[in-house]
């Protein structure tokens, strides 16, 4: 059809998509003219379709002899990419897309417009899951004669049998294409496949569909699913569903959705159905002859307001005579060949006008009475359909106090230009969101609210008061204090006060009892004392893993692990003491004595000595036997006599009780 560019509208300050005609230089003049006419028709058709699930048209014009269409810029992915992404959409999300597409098609069909090329590549799905139908390049409006019978336009895999055989279609061809697209959306498989285009076209026109019996990872009612798909893919248009929304409603009975998904999709279908009902009453007026369409356009030109005419008893007969005369004139012009040139003249005349109004009023109905001369005309209402959503979804939406429904929802608003309304979103445990909207030609197609969690004020108390409260590394203050929590906030609070035992609680807003924030602190009992009585120089004392200085300690009641060591004198001791409230405990270390002689009798004249796993050293080096004046604490020790030439070779091990005044002499034969 052409090339599409992303562009920026500096006046309205928004991103748009601009489509331009891209004519093949080899095309003859007739083909080029039809191409331009089809491009123009796309703009005219899309201009009729103001729907949240159809790409909107902003402007149509010509620049340096090149026609263009300025359209809504949609950021998303094609439907084919959407259903096959790494984290594929759920069954409910796929049904929401199909329901939205059905509503958009019903809306277009009610306007007398057939898309004729519905396929995943012509559907963009936005990040929020909202689908948009685009590319009405080969669409057909009632009364258009661009495409003649017998000419096939469309995409093979998604075309209807009548589109393939005859080239002539009505809105039910789109319903067939929607059925094919729905089968692919739900099963990721096409109902008609083949090795070549001809094979695919033959199967669509002559063979039953090859339906999948399951959905990827999703349960379905197989018999219902096959029945619904067989009906929508009937070769005879009369045997299919006659509305796209009837098809998706029947399809809902075949898929197994959660209660929440059923509610959302069902409500979305109801909203879209209401949109279509608003325009369905004019469908009969869009299937008119060329003469009627020309007269309809002619009647929209400015006219003087006639004086009111009083109706008389014979007024109906008079009107009938006038209508017969008009009909006779039309038949005469048609027979003489003058009707078509006259219509072409009408068309050329009114195409020059920049303001063309397409009337959708049935000629058989009476025109509304014109306001009296001098009285200003009443403003004409605009009708705009927009989507309403929220993050998270499920918020109730109101427009001027009237409930629209839970998000996501679609609403059709009918008001004169400049009318103002208030949109209000309400969601449990969230702050209300309010937005004012104004009716205008360029009213946005979607309104989305970011719902903020509502904070809950809580009072944190303690008995007694004055406890310091901390959350992580943050100090919140001293009790009593007020603090704001959001629903499902998870916090760990630590209470501390001198003279009382520290206490920690975990609190989850909405799940924990608020009374949990009232903490009763336990008073600490009086401490006890511990004394270490020792005459050892360089003594090291650790209590509960922490090194202490001095030999007198005040400790809280309870058991404590005490470690006392003096490596220089081969002394190390660990014990547990139980401190009573107000009580006193003491630990006495053994005395240090001097052993006059330490010797080893055996095959080696001298050896190294290890005591309690520690080498005896002298002058910074391992000392050897015989040794004199060894300083060591009284008590039992573990002695090892080591080969000086190979420290891994232990010649003798022996446990010896060291006593004051006794020498230590060990023989290898002992």
Structure commentary:
It is a single chain. This protein is α+β, with helices and mostly antiparallel strands and 670 residues long. Helix content is 25%, strand content 32%. It folds into 6 domains: 76-282, Orthogonal Bundle (Transferase(Phosphotransferase), domain 1), CATH 1.10.510.10; 288-301 and 327-354, no CATH class; 382-450, Immunoglobulin-like, CATH 2.60.40; 456-520, no CATH class; 528-588, Immunoglobulins (Immunoglobulin-like, Sandwich); 592-667. The longest helix is centred in the middle third of the chain and has 22 residues, at 259-280. It has a 4-stranded antiparallel sheet with strand order 1-2-4-3, with helices on one face. A 4-stranded antiparallel sheet has the order 12-11-14-15, with no helix packed on it. Strands 19-18-21-22 form a 4-stranded antiparallel sheet, with no helix packed on it.
Which key terms come to mind for this protein?
alpha+beta; Immunoglobulin-like; 6 domains; 4-stranded antiparallel sheet; 13 helices; 39 strands
Query: Based on the structure, what is the oligomeric state of the protein chains?
Result: single chain
Instruction: Compute the number of structural domains.
Output: 6
* Adjacency order of strands in the biggest sheet: 1-2-4-3
Distance between the termini: 108 Å
List the uncertain runs.
Answer: 141-152, 272-315, 321-326, 330-335, 345-374
Structural class: alpha+beta
Strand content: 25-35%
* Helical run tally: 13
Q: What is the CATH architecture descriptor of the largest domain?
A: Orthogonal Bundle
Shape: elongated
CATH class placement of the largest domain:
Mainly Alpha
> How many beta strands in the DSSP annotation?
39
Radius of gyration: 46 Å
The CATH topology of the largest domain, please?
Transferase(Phosphotransferase), domain 1
Give the CATH superfamily of the largest domain: Transferase(Phosphotransferase) domain 1
**Overall residue-averaged pLDDT value:** 79
Proportion of helical residues: 10-25%
Largest sheet: 4 strands, antiparallel
């Amino acid at each position: 059809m052409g090339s599409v560019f992303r562009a920026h509208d500096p006046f309205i300050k928004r991103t748009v998509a601009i489509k331009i005609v891209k004519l093949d230089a080899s095309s003859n003049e007739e083909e080029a003219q039809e191409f331009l006419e089809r491009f123009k028709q796309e703009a005219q058709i899309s201009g009729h379709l103001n729907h949240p699930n159809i790409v909107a048209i902003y402007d149509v014009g010509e620049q340096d002899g090149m026609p263009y269409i300025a359209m809504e810029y949609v950021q998303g992915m094609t439907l084919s990419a959407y259903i096959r992404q790494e984290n594929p959409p759920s069954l409910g999300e796929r049904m929401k897309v199909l329901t939205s597409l059905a509503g958009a098609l019903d809306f277009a069909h009610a306007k007398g417009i057939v898309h004729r090329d519905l396929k995943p590549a012509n559907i963009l799905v936005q990040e929020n899951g909202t689908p948009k139908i685009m590319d009405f390049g080969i669409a057909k409006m009632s009364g258009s004669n661009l495409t003649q019978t017998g000419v096939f336009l469309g995409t093979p895999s998604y075309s209807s049998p009548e589109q393939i055989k005859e080239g002539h279609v009505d809105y039910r061809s789109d319903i067939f294409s929607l059925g094919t697209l729905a089968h692919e959306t739900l099963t990721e498989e096409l109902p008609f496949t083949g090795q070549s285009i001809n094979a695919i076209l033959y199967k669509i026109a002559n063979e039953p569909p090859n339906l999948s019996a399951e959905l990827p990872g999703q349960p379905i009612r197989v018999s219902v699913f096959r029945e619904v798909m067989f009906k929508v893919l009937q070769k005879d248009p009369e045997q299919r569903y006659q509305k796209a929304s009837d098809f998706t409603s029947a399809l809902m009975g075949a898929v197994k959705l959660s209660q929440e998904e059923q509610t959302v999709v069902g409500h979305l279908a109801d909203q879209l159905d209401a949109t279509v009902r608003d325009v369905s009453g004019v469908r009969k007026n869009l299937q008119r002859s060329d003469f009627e369409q020309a007269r309809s356009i002619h009647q929209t030109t400015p006219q003087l307001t006639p004086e009111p005419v009083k109706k008389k008893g014979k007024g109906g007969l008079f009107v009938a005579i006038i209508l017969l005369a008009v009909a006779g004139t039309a038949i005469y012009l048609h027979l003489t060949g003058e009707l078509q040139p006259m219509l072409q003249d009408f068309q050329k005349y009114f195409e020059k006008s920049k303001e063309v109004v397409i009337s959708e009023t049935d000629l058989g109905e009476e025109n509304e009475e014109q306001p009296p001369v001098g009285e200003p005309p009443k403003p004409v209402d605009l009708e705009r359909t927009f989507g309403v959503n929220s993050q998270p979804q499920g918020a109730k939406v109101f427009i001027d106090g009237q409930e629209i429904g839970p998000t996501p929802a679609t609403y059709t608003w009918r008001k004169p230009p400049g009318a103002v309304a208030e949109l209000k979103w309400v969601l449990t445990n969230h702050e209300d969101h309010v937005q004012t909207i104004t009716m205008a030609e360029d009213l946005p197609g979607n309104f989305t609210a970011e719902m903020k969690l509502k904070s809950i004020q809580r009072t944190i108390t303690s008995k007694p008061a004055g406890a310091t409260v901390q959350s992580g590394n943050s100090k919140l203050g001293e009790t009593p204090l007020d603090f704001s929590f959001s629903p499902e906030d998870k916090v760990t609070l630590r209470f501390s006060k001198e003279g009382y035992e520290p206490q920690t609680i975990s609190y989850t807003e909405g799940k924990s009892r608020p009374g949990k924030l009232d903490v009763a602190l336990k008073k600490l009992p009086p401490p006890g004392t511990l004394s270490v009585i020792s005459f050892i120089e360089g003594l090291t004392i650790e209590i509960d893993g922490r090194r202490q200085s001095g030999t007198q300690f005040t400790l809280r009641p309870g058991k404590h692990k005490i470690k006392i060591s003096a490596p220089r004198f081969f002394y190390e001791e660990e014990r547990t003491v139980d401190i009573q409230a107000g009580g006193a405990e003491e630990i006495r270390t053994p005395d240090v004595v001097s052993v006059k002689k330490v010797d080893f009798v055996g095959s080696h004249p001298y050896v190294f000595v290890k005591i309690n796993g520690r080498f005896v050293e002298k002058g910074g080096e391992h000392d050897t036997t015989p040794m004199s004046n060894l300083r060591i604490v009284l008590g039992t020790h573990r002695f090892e006599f080591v080969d000086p030439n190979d420290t891994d070779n232990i010649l003798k091990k022996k446990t010896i009780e060291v006593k004051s005044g006794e020498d230590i002499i060990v023989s290898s034969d002992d």
